[in-house]
Give the backbone structure.
Amino acid sequence: MGKVMLEVKELTTKYITRFKEDVYAVDHVSLKVEEGKSLGIAGESGCGKSTLALSLMGYYFPPLYYTSGDIIIDGRNISGMEPDDIRKTILGREIAYIPQAAMNALNPTGKVINFIEDVVRAHDSKITKAEVYEMASERFNLLGLPPSTLERYPVELSGGMKQRTVIAISVILGPKVLIADEPSSALDVTSQKMVIRMLMDLMEKQVIKSMIFITHELPLLYNVTDDIMVMYAGQMVERGTAQQTVFDPLHPYSKGLMGSIIVPESGSRGVRLTAIPGTPPNLKKPPFGCRFAERCRYVTPECIVRQVEPVETSNNRMYRCIFSEEYLRKAYANE
Amino acid sequence: MKHMLQQVFHSPKFVVGFIIFMSILLLSVIYPIFVTGDPLVIIGKGTFFEPGIYVNVVDGIDSQLYSLSLPDVAEKRIALKLGATERADMKEWLVAFGIPEADIDTEDTEALLNIWNQNYDSKLRLPGMTNARKNYFARLDASIDNLLSTEGIIIASKDPSTGALTEEETIGQSQYINVNRTSNVKVLPLGTDNFGRDMVPELISAIGTSLKIGFIAGSIATLLGLVLGLVAGYVGGWVDDIILFVTNLFIVIPSFVLLILISYSIGQEQRGAVTVAVVIGFTSWVWTCRAVRSQVISLRNRDHVNLSKLSGHSTAHIIISDILPYVASYVVMAFILQISSGILSEAGLSILGLGPKTSDVATLGLMMNWAMIYSAHIMGKWWAYFPVIIAIALITFSMNLMNTGLDLVFNPTLRD
Amino acid sequence: MNDANKSCLKGVGLTKIFGLGKQRCLAVDHVDFDFKEGEIISIVGESGSGKTTLAKMLLGLISITEGDIYFEGVKRDISSQRKKKEYWKNIQAIFQDPYSSYNIFRKIDTVLLDCLVMRGQKDLPAEEKNRLITEACSFVNLKYEELTNKYPFELSGGQMQRLMIARVFLLKPRVLLADEPTSMIDACSRATILDMLMDLRRETGMTIVFITHDIGLAYYVSDSVYIMEHGKLIESGSADEVILNPKQAYTQRLINDVPKIHEEWDLSTVDAR
C-alpha cells in the first residue's frame, strides 16, 4: 500500500442560497487517494461531484461553506486553515484544481508566459522572468507542448491546446494532488484524448503524485482512473476499482449508471439501456432514509425509514445499501 | 410576472428611487388640486423677492396693537440694518471722503452714525465710484435714518381740502401686531422669480410639465425604437439595412444639434410643451432601436423561436410572443432612462432659449432660463434656480436609481 | 414500416455559404444523401462540421445557397409562409438544449395546444383536446394534469425533452430531426429519451434523423450513419459497416478516439503536439 496523498474524513459542505436555505451538496464524504493512484468520481449532474471537487481544495467562497470534516494532504490537515493561508501555501503547491472551462481562464490580452509569471510570482515573489521562462519551457517540453506556445496569445490557440496549456500551468508548482473536474467534456474527441494523455503523462512523469478525476462520462473514467467512486445526492454510494465498479456494480444506482453506457463497439447495438426513472432528491430537504429509495426498483419499506451506512466488503470495496452483495448480484442476474 | 414584480420591489435601490419619484409625481398631481389658480400669476411688482412671510403694512397698522416690553428690540433693529457689510461700506465711503481711517470705529454704532450723518452727502459723487454704488449709498443712508431714534412713528391723516396733516396715532417702538390676526399675510417659502411669480406653485407646475414632456418624449422614443428595432432585428435583409441606415444617420448627427435645429425651425410661437416633447422623442429613439435590434438578432436564432416557427406561427405572432417578452425588461429600463433624458434634453433646450413658448407654461428648463437671463446666479438670488436644480437632480437621480435596481434584478450576473 | 426503399428525404448538392467576400464560410459543401422512409439515420460530426447547418436547411429554417431537397420524391417548395406551414406538418425537430427550446414566458401546455392548432383541430371540444394531449403525455410518461399551469423552468431537462417528444407524437410528422437531443441531459435520462424515440419510430413509421457528435450513440440508435467533416459527407452506410469497418481515415480516428470499455483505448495514437 502506497503512501496516502489525500485523505478526506467525513467532509460536509453546504451552499447557502439567496433565500438563506442550506443545501448539503457534500454530505459526510470520506475518501483516500494513494501516491501514484487516481480516483474517479462519477454521478449525474447535481449529485455533488463538482461541489466535492471545490470542497477538496479547502478554499471556500460564498455561497459554499465548510461545515465539518477533515482534509489531510500528505499528512497535513488543511481543513482548519485560514483561506488566505490556503491560497498562498496550499493551492498550486499541494493541491491544484482544473475546472471544466479552464481554458477560458487565460487572459485574452496577455501572452501565456505572462499568465505563468503571475502564477509563479504569487507563490514566489523573488523569481526572475528568465527563470520563470526556463522553468515553463522545460515543463512544456516534458508534457509535449511546444514551448513556442508560451509566446502566443490565447486566441491563437485551439480549445484543446488552451485546455492543455492551462493544465500545464496549474501543475507548474508540482502539486501533490490534482483535481480535474470534467477537463475534457467541452472538447471534441481528439482533443479530449490529448488532454487525457497529458494527464496520464503527468502521473507517469511524477509531476503530480495523485489525481482525482471527475466526469459523467463513464467510459472515459474507466480508462483514466484506478478507482471509481459513485456519488448520489451528495453522498458516496459506491467505491471500488474501475474494473469492479463498471463491470460489477453493487449499488442499484451504479448499476443503472453503468447500464446506460454507450460505446461504439460491436455488440453494443440493440443492447437495452437501463433508464433510472425520476429525478434526484432536493438537497434542501434530503430524504431521511436511503436517498436513492424513491427511484430504486428494489426498494423496501425499510430503505425509507432507516439511515443507510456504507458497507465495506472483503475486497476493499464500499457501497451504501441495506442489501447484501449476494442479494444484489442475484437480483441483477435475474433481470 | 408576479414573482418578478416581487423581486423588483425587493431591490432596495429600486424602492428608494421609486419612492422619490412617486413623491415628486404625487406632489405635482395633488398640489394643484388643493391650490387652485394660475401658478404663473404675477404677484410681485419687482424681481426676486426673498423667501419669507410678507405682511400687508396697512393691515399691520390697522390691526390691534400689543405692547411687549422686550429688551433687545433696538439691538435687533440695528443688527438687521447695520450689519458688518454695511458698516464696512460706510467706512469705505468715509475714508474715500477724506476722514482718517483711525477716527472710524465700525464697532461703535453711535459714533459711526454720528460721523456718517455729519459727513454724508447724497449728492456728492466721489471719484472712482460708479453710479450704482452711489445709489447704493443713498439707499443705505435712507435705511439707517432715524435708526437710533426712540420716538414712535406718527400716523397722520390728510385733510382732503387743505392738505393739512393731523396726527392720528403714534406707533411706539415696542408695539407689536399678531400676524395671525392680520388679514393679509403672504408666505413665500421660495420667494418670487424675476417676474414676481410665487416660486412654489410655479416650481410644482414646472415639475408636472417637465414630467409630462419626459413621459411623452420617452414614450415616443421607446415605442419608435422598440418597433423599428424589433422589425430590423427579426425581419433582417433590406428592411434591416434601411432602418440601420436611418439609425446611423441619427447617430452621426449629434441629436442635440438636430434638436436645436428642429426647435429653431419650428419657431417660438408653435413650440408648446407637447411639440417640444415630440421633437425630443423623435430625435432620441436611436439607441433604443440599436440595442433592441442587437438583442433581437441574438434571439431570433434561439431554439424557442425555431420551435415557434415549426409550430406554424406567423411572423407577427413570433415577434410579439417569442421575442418581445425577452426584450421587455430591457425596454422598461430603457424607457425609464428615456424619460429622464427627455427631461434633461428639455432643460438643455430651454436654457438655450429653444424650449416651449415662454410665459405659457413653466418647465424646469424654462425656469432655469429665466433665472439665468435675469442673472439670478450673479446676484445671489439662489431661490430662483437652486430649487429647480434640486428638482431636476432628484427626478433624474430617482429614475437612474430605479433603472439600476431593475438592472440588478433582470441581469443576474450583476447581482452580488 | 412502409416500403423500406422508398425515399423520404433526399438532398442533391446541398450547399450553404455564410457571409460574403473574405468572410465567406463554406458551412455545408455539396452534400448528397437519400434518407429512406422509416429509417433512423445519424449524421455524425465534430463541432464545426456543418451538421447543425445541414439540419436547419432540411428544416427550412435557413435558406439554401445551392442544391435541392426532395421530400418523398417531390422537390420541396417553401416559397411562401403557407407552403412552409404545410412542409412543417411533415418535418419536425427536437433541439439540443431543452432549456432554450421553450419560451420561458409561456406556460408549457401551450406548446401542446399549438400542435392541435397546427393539426387543424383548433375547434375540437375541450374534452377531446384534453384526451389527445393526455395520450401524448402518457406516451412520454408525463402526467398532463401536472403540467398544466407550469412554466418551463419548473421542469427538469429530461422532462422538457420528453415534452418535446410528446409534441412530435401529437404532430406525427413524416420526418423528425433530432439535433443532439441527449447531449445536455444526464446519462440515465438519456436512455429514456432514446427508448421513446425508438418507440415513436415503431409506432408511426417516422424517419428519424439524429444529429450527433457521439459516435457511440449513433451506432446504438441508427440504421445508417453519415459522417461529416468540414461540411462534406465523407462516409456513409449502414451503422455496422461504418462503425465497425470504417474506410476513411477521419472516421477511423473518430472511432479510435472515443473511450471504450471492452476494447482497449489506445492513448498512444494521439500525437501530443
In short: Residues 187-204 of chain C form the longest helix (18 residues). The mean pLDDT of chain C is 87.
